[in-house]
Amino acid sequence: MNRLSGVACFFGAAAVPVSLAACGAFQSPAAWGTPVPQIAAHGRGVPRGGSWMSAKAKGENLLYVSDDVRSEVYVLSYPAGTLVGVLTGFGSPAGECVDAAGDVWITNLSPPEIIQFAHGSTSPTATLSEADSEPMGCSVDAKTGNLAVTNHYPRTIAVYQNAQGTPTTYSDSDFDGYDYCTYDDAGDLFADDAVVGGMIAELPEGSGTLKSITLNQKLYPLSIQWNKTYLAIETETTLDADLRGTHGSISVNHVKVSGSTGSVIGETHLKAPNDRIDSGGQQFWISGNTIVGPDMFRYGRLGVFLWRYPSGGKPSSTIREMWGDPWGTVVSLAKKR
Q1: What superfamily would CATH give domain 5-332?
Q2: For the whole prediction, is pTM greater than 0.85?
Q3: Tens digit of each residue's pLDDT (9 = 90 or more) over 117-144
Q4: What H or E segment, with its residue span, contains residue 7?
Q5: 20, 4 in Cβ contact below 8 A?
């Protein structure tokens, strides 16, 4: 698995959370609110060798799926799932996010950078260099256009004003490493930590300090997304078996945040096609009444599934390609004409 060592420690076969310090992947967090010099917006308009895209793609809703093993990002029509393009030239693509214009940002671990593609395009419109870091997830604030990027190392969240220039970084010593993040409609930023169970981080709109949000249940988040009125937090709630038996239960918890507390107000269970509980998902995406997510290595069925949301249960349909390690998913809607 072409994945940074810290992730392998807690997303491995047994999926048992351990201290990331024991993995040897992390060092002391950077100072709170510290600007870090970056190289912004290079590679504009440069085609990526081997990338291709159907001429019809720009007029369709698109699903982007990152593949960590093949170091490619697949672009499919949504929700039909027809392959309409492939983006290449990555070292290790991971998380994805989309802005109000439908442009997609993709985090790349090697070299560490965040790359922007216009909807249905094969040429980057911007590339932000993340030197000496491990960018995992990202989110774009619909109000300001700010781009937030979560890093496993050096355990920081970098915020780029208007998705460009030099970011301001934030950290909190209570967290072992940030996985994914999401902005709510008010411009508050939330990030998860799969190792520290029962807690998420919040950067309130206009604040310069991260704060800890304590959950009323012991959850181990895999990914996180704002869904109109609450946080949708994908989590593995049972960590009790290896790949050969019954797996941990994957669910999407609906969490309301009030002050420094997050309360679970609902739950959506996601099952695999054969009725056994699915636990292979990483970054999911909610699009209307559908939740999209990858199944990395369960039951030999590599691919991406669509579930009805919030009812969950078995997938309503399956998108399956010869992928090595589907990791991140995001839906980019075509512009209305």
Answers
A1: YVTN repeat-like/Quinoprotein amine dehydrogenase (2.130.10.10)
A2: no
A3: 999 999 999 999 988 899 999 999 999 9
A4: helix 5-10
A5: no
